[in-house]
Amino acid sequence: MKKLTIKDIAKLAGVSFKTVSRVINNEDNVKEETKEKVKKILLEQNFSVNYNAKRLASSRTRQIGVITNTKSNELSKNYIILHHILTFAKMKDYTIIVHESLDKVKRNNLGKIDKGFYEGIIFLNPKKMEDIEETVRDKLPVVMSGISEKYVCVGTDQYESGYIATMALIKKGCKDIAVILDDPDTTTNKEKVRGYADALKSVGYMINDENIHYNYRTSFDVEALITKKYLKDSLYDGVLIGSDVLGLGAVRAINKLKIPCPMNFKFITFGNTFICNETYPSMSSIKQNFESIAKNLVDKIVELIENKDKPKSMVIPAEIIERESTI
């Protein structure tokens, strides 16, 4: 049986070749009624686009590199964003090539990032701005999650996140507030700590460097710290915890040691993933719209690749969702 072409589909639908092409490419400028009619015929005829041939014809790879800057962990913030990036990139007919670090990318014989392989690079929560600078020097379009004045970025305002989370604990009566984070080198964590410190200063609280904890990579690390502080009768009355996954350590410590929460101990995480509602106590958290971040990262890198115009960065305001760990 002869394979149908776009022209054949257009004839069956009674529309132009261009209209069918727009429907296939998910473009907006087609009437909803026409779009549904064309989609119905595409499904009935089991029509599919040969994207490999399409790419060869255009001499483009339609491949975007994503640098995750973290080990594989399906519950980590970067991997949640990556999951959504894969979906949105597919909708725009782009393939995502995932690397844990810039060291792993494909390079040409001069040691530069291979522009014939990648059309652009997305950095998730970059640890080193030098990596982005290198990519720009190699003349590839770049966007990043997080906040930057220099590069196109999409992200939650982490300074504001740290500030409003700390102020929420202060308003609940907390006076000895700590922050527990994983990587000390990421911009997002540095901004959280800056917001935390400014919130303490704003009410005249002293900043104790010993209350700022870095390199807590697992929930078990967090559980061990809280257990140690509790058994020494020196547990903080409020804690900011860098992610919902790390917050699970606080939940375990509370339940094992029967720590009165939120009466004597309150905590807030960052992320607001589904985990927050599945624990006891449920976790108050700073909301970060990972799906929106992913969609806008893809939109902006594609805009840079296809239009060469520099799109505007997008900063998503921080918002606290309070649950049993603080109320």
Automatic annotation (TrEMBL):
<dbReference type="Pfam" id="PF00356">
    <property type="entry name" value="LacI"/>
</dbReference>
<protein>
    <recommendedName>
        <fullName>HTH lacI-type domain-containing protein</fullName>
    </recommendedName>
</protein>
<keyword id="KW-0804">Transcription</keyword>
<dbReference type="InterPro" id="IPR028082">
    <property type="entry name" value="Peripla_BP_I"/>
</dbReference>
<dbReference type="GO" id="GO:0000976">
    <property type="term" value="F:transcription cis-regulatory region binding"/>
</dbReference>
<feature type="domain" description="HTH lacI-type">
    <location>
        <begin position="4"/>
        <end position="58"/>
    </location>
</feature>
<dbReference type="InterPro" id="IPR010982">
    <property type="entry name" value="Lambda_DNA-bd_dom_sf"/>
</dbReference>
<keyword id="KW-0678">Repressor</keyword>
<dbReference type="InterPro" id="IPR046335">
    <property type="entry name" value="LacI/GalR-like_sensor"/>
</dbReference>
<dbReference type="InterPro" id="IPR000843">
    <property type="entry name" value="HTH_LacI"/>
</dbReference>
<dbReference type="Pfam" id="PF13377">
    <property type="entry name" value="Peripla_BP_3"/>
</dbReference>
<keyword id="KW-0238">DNA-binding</keyword>
<keyword id="KW-0805">Transcription regulation</keyword>
<dbReference type="GO" id="GO:0003700">
    <property type="term" value="F:DNA-binding transcription factor activity"/>
</dbReference>
